[in-house]
Amino acid sequence: MRLLQVDAFTDQPFRGNPAAVCLLDREVDDGWMQAVAEEMNLSETAFVGQRSDRNGGSADLPLRWFTPRAEVDLCGHATLASAHALWREGDVPADAELRFATRSGVLTASQVDGGIQLDFPATPAEPAEAPPGLLEALGAKAVQVGRSRFDYLVAVGSQEEVTELEPDSRRLLGVAARGVIVTAAARPPFDFVSRFFAPSVGVDEDPVTGSAHCCLSPYWAERLGRPDLVGFQASRRGGVVRTRLAGDRVLLIGQAVTVLRGELC
User: Fold this and answer.
1) 166 classed as catalytic
2) For the chain, what is the domain count?
3) Which residue of 15, 31, 92, 190 has the fewest C-beta atoms within 10 A of its own C-beta?
4) In the chain, at which residue ranges do the beta strands (DSSP E only) sit?
């Protein structure tokens, strides 16, 4: 069983967000996938299944994502990593568009100038009250708070406030959401910065979070008045995500680098 480690949303090894990609060659159970994800101990491990034609329709590749603690419904960087792995390993032609069957519907990946483009559902944040303890756990003063399908979004006043955050991960465990996005407007060459904290699913801080940009894209597109934006996720590793808001979809564009190839015994 082939297993790769791919750094996503970067063009340099050891930057961006590392994801493990397991290219399945047989049926496996959920417990096995969760055990592999715990063994990899990365924010996400992606499991790509074999193509299956359903009722004569298009052949989609089953794709699932697991943190070391739980399965998640949507993950950008591990989808980017999976597409990169399939093309680079020669499992699919380099010019082929990929269609992944996931818990968030069919997601597509294609190669474009400057990287890989993912077509994801937008998950806009509605204005919301901060739940008890959230802002105290972050150590942040919010300009605005919202709630998306998955996460809380906390906008703060400056780029420095985002980069200097030192949240209390244990206190964030009490927040009833997958995670917390913290964001602010950025200085050029970026439009906004963000960080993402998800201790409830075993990830104290995610280095670069594609799915969080499905929320960040509509938020900043409305405020900046344009659909095409560039975000920088200001984790220690750091990563760049280009976004385009297209109705109820968000196009995420990034690069990826393979850093390890191996086999599961």
Assistant:
1) no
2) 2
3) 31
4) 2-8, 17-23, 44-48, 61-66, 71-72, 98-102, 105-112, 115-121, 126-127, 144-147, 151-155, 179-185, 192-198, 203-206, 228-233, 239-246, 249-254, 256-263
